Recover the amino acids of this structure.
């Protein structure tokens, strides 16, 4: 006689056969690669600051532009997705991830035209980051203004 | 529901394989290879249409038939509105049925075509399937250049197109019976684990087929499921044993685990897509049947009916599987 397995029981069976993800290894790789991106960023800031007429703030902006440009370029050339899938959060949490998500969406839709393709879809993945980034900035700005006087 | 066929035979098959598949263990057995995802076309979708057209043309050439000799075509693929099939078959000027059962489409199309041939409404039909890793990634997941870490249970959609010609004229291989599966939803919501989604429907249809044809797993030389993957295959065996008391032995395998080179390619749990099972069957199993190395084969095409819209709405993923039995006569 056939017994009908409950969903909960089936879920247990799935868990039993689920392969273990190596979390320690993944976290270590993400930590090291993320740190490396930070070191490169700091190196770029120091490099730009070595020019006499560039202030620290300007150097930081230039560093970000450089990292964004490189991520976009590497995504367009086609090997950055392999890096991100191996490095995980080490590459998609820094600004490199945002640039990668935006560029890859743009590339994916380029054949569907500038308006209906790229225009409508470029922020498909990164739209949430922009929206909630702006909202969070408003909230923290207000908190800072109210409690710390701006 | 089980259907028995009296006069449906396999006349010929064709396989066209794309990147990654052509590096796999079956690489020398395909009729045609596509080395990249564009092959001179402007988009991935247009390249997939070209692959399906090649599969159909090769099928007609191999069996020395013109398209006029074919009474109707049945085709399936993964794209919305089964776009690839529609565009590829539009050029053929042949009566056409388009089907969608995701990766269970191979058995579904053979089942539909065989039923029509068996009722003597038609003499000859072609059933085709197509899938492409790139078009599937675009539609179901993320942009293709977007890299994000994926869990090990993820399957990697097979790129390729296949065709089979069925006829009422007697040949070596007969389509003897088919079982229509049920949609089963066991509450799995993980879009990275299709093996777990499809296992219950595959087990249901296998049990139903054995029961209705009064056979045991040992009666088949080979039982092949569609695309459960490395982990799904083990889950399937245990689920089948616990739920239905059926224990599969060495005569069982899963096509997802047979199509790629696991050592040198990063392809997670194995292949998937409507072309995964037919690429293995038409390039490897059918030739073995012609040589009489295998005489009775049971194919279970497993389909996860995944819709990104419904997954975003937090609904679980239903699945359906269908079975086809092929026999050497």
């Amino acid at each position: 006689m056939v017994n009908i397995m409950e969903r909960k029981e089936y879920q247990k069976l799935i868990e039993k056969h689920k392969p273990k993800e190596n979390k320690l290894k993944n976290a270590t790789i993400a930590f090291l690669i993320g740190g490396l991106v930070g070191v490169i960023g700091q190196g770029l800031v120091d490099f730009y600051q070595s020019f006499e007429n560039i202030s620290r703030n300007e150097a930081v902006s230039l560093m970000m532009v450089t990292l964004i440009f490189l991520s976009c370029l590497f995504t367009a050339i086609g090997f950055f997705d392999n890096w991100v899938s191996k490095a995980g959060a080490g590459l998609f949490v820094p600004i490199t991830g945002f640039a990668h998500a935006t560029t890859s969406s743009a590339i994916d839709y380029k054949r569907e035209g500038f308006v209906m393709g790229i225009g409508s879809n470029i922020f498909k993945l990164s739209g949430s980051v922009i929206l909630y980034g702006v909202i969070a900035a408003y909230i923290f700005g207000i908190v800072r203004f109210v409690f710390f006087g701006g | 529901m089980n259907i028995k066929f009296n006069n449906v035979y396999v006349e010929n098959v064709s396989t066209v394989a794309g990147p990654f598949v052509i590096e796999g263990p079956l690489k020398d057995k395909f009729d045609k290879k596509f080395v990249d995802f564009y092959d001179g076309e402007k988009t991935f979708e247009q390249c997939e249409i070209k692959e399906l057209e090649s599969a159909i043309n090769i099928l007609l050439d191999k069996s020395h038939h013109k398209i006029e000799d074919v009474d109707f075509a049945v085709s399936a693929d993964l794209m919305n509105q089964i776009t690839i099939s529609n565009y590829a078959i539009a050029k053929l000027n042949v009566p056409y049925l388009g089907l969608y059962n995701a990766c269970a489409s191979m058995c579904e199309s053979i089942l539909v075509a065989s039923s029509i041939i068996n009722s003597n409404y038609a003499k000859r039909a072609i059933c085709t399937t197509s899938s492409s890793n790139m078009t599937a990634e675009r539609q179901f997941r993320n942009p293709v250049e977007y890299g994000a870490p994926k869990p090990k249970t993820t399957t990697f959609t097979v790129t390729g197109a296949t065709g089979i010609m069925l006829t009422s004229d007697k040949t070596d291989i007969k389509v003897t019976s088919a079982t229509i599966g049920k949609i089963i939803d066991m509450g799995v919501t993980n879009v990275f684990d299709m093996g777990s989604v499809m296992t219950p429907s595959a087990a249901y249809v296998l049990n139903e087929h054995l029961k209705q044809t009064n056979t045991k797993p040992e009666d088949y030389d080979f039982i092949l499921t569609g695309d459960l993957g490395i982990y799904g295959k083990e889950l399937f065996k245990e689920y089948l044993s616990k739920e239905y008391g059926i224990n599969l032995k060495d005569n069982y395998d899963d096509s997802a685990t047979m199509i790629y080179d696991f050592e040198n390619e990063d392809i997670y749990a194995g292949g998937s897509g409507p072309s995964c099972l037919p690429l293995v069957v038409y390039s490897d199993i059918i030739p073995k049947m012609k040589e009489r190395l295998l005489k009775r084969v049971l194919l279970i095409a497993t389909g996860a009916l995944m819709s990104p819209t419904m997954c975003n709405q937090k609904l679980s993923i239903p699945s359906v599987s269908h079975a086809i039995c092929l026999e050497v006569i």
Observations:
- The longest strand of chain B covers residues 319-328.
- The mean pLDDT of chain B is 96.
- The two ends of chain B are 24 Å apart (CA to CA).
- Chain B has two domains: 2-167, 173-328.
